[in-house]
Design brief:
Blueprint lengths: L1 H5 L19 H16 L3 H11 L11 E4 L12 E5 L2 E7 L10 H13 L6 E5 L7 H15 L6 E5 L1 H15 L2 H16 L10 H8 L37
Parallel strand pairs: 3-4, 4-5
Antiparallel strand pairs: 1-2, 2-3
Helix pairs in contact: 2-7, 3-6, 4-5, 6-7
C-alpha cells in the first residue's frame, strides 16, 4: 500500500478522487503511522529489542514483540490508540501525531488512553507519544506527564516517553546498521520515503557553521581557486613585410 500511495495509485487506498495535500488530512497521518510501525513489526526479535532499548534510553527491559495492532477499539469505545505493541508482560501504547514541532499531544486524550488500557486489564503500560510536541526536552515531557497525572488524579501507574519522528528514525537506523542486513536497509529506505512524502526530515538540519566546526574543517587551501590572472602582453616585433614578399592574387 505504501508504494501505491507514494506513486499516486490511490484507488483502494481511501484517497481515490481526493486532491490530497500532504499533512492536511487525518488519512495522511494514518498512512505515516501505519507505514512506519508495520515495518517495525517486521524486525527480527533482536533488532526490535535493540531498537526499543535505544528509543527508551536503555531504561526498560523489553522482550520481543508478540503482537502489534492498529487503532484498537477497546470496550469503552472512547479512545482508539494508534498502535498497541504487546511485548511479553509489557504493553506499549503509541499515540502518533503528524508534526514534530507543533503541539498536538494533549493530556486529556492521553489520560483517557491510560484509563482505557486499565479497563482492558493492561496495568502499568508504557505510553509513547511520537510527534506532536513543540520540543522534546525533559522539561516539556515532564510538564505533559504532570498534566496527565492530574487528569488521572495520580491513581494509575504508567511510564511515559515522548519522541520525535526524527528520534524514532535515528533509533531504528542505529539498530538496523548494526545488523548489516541489506533487506533491513530496504525496510529503512521505505520509511525514509514515507517521511519524505509527508515532508518530515529523517535527519536533523546541518547548518554551515556546524559543518565547519564539527565535521568538515574548511580552509582556503581546500577550496578550488579560480582567481583570474591578468594577461601579460609581449611587445610586438616588426616583421618587415612588403608587397614584394606578400602573395598576390590580383591578376596582372
Amino acid at each position: 500500500m505504501l508504494s501505491a500511495v507514494l506513486y499516486g495509485k490511490r484507488l483502494g487506498t481511501g484517497f481515490a478522487g481526493l486532491r490530497l495535500k500532504i499533512g492536511e488530512t487525518q488519512g495522511a497521518e494514518d498512512v505515516l503511522t501505519a507505514s512506519v510501525f508495520e515495518r517495525i513489526g517486521y524486525l527480527p526479535d533482536d533488532i526490535f529489542i535493540d531498537f526499543i532499548n535505544t528509543l527508551f534510553g536503555n531504561r526498560q527491559n523489553i522482550s520481543s514483540l508478540d503482537t502489534l495492532s492498529f487503532w484498537t477499539r477497546w470496550k469503552n469505545g472512547s479512545v482508539e490508540p494508534d498502535v498497541v505493541l504487546s511485548c511479553g508482560e509489557q504493553t506499549i501504547i503509541v499515540e502518533a501525531k503528524r508534526y514534530d514541532h507543533i503541539q498536538q499531544q494533549y493530556s486529556e486524550q492521553l489520560a483517557k488512553e491510560i484509563k482505557a488500557a486499565y479497563d482492558e486489564g493492561i496495568t502499568n503500560p508504557i505510553l509513547l507519544t511520537v510527534g506532536g510536541m513543540y520540543d522534546y526536552s525533559t522539561k516539556s515531557m515532564d510538564s505533559l506527564k504532570t498534566q496527565i497525572d492530574n487528569q488521572l488524579h495520580g491513581a494509575l501507574n504508567y511510564t511515559f516517553y515522548a519522541v520525535s519522528w526524527q528520534q524514532l528514525y535515528h533509533a531504528l537506523q542505529l539498530a538496523i546498521d548494526k545488523s548489516q542486513s541489506k533487506s533491513l536497509q530496504r525496510l529503512l529506505s521505505d520509511i525514509r520515503e514515507a517521511y519524505a512524502w509527508h515532508g518530515i526530515r529523517h535527519q536533523p538540519r546541518q547548518w554551515l557553521g556546524d559543518i565547519v566546526k564539527k565535521n568538515y574543517p574548511i580552509d582556503f587551501e581546500t577550496i578550488p581557486c579560480f582567481k583570474h590572472r591578468a594577461t601579460s602582453w609581449k611587445r610586438l616585433h616588426t616583421i618587415n613585410l612588403t608587397y614584394e614578399t606578400f602573395p598576390s592574387f590580383i591578376g596582372e
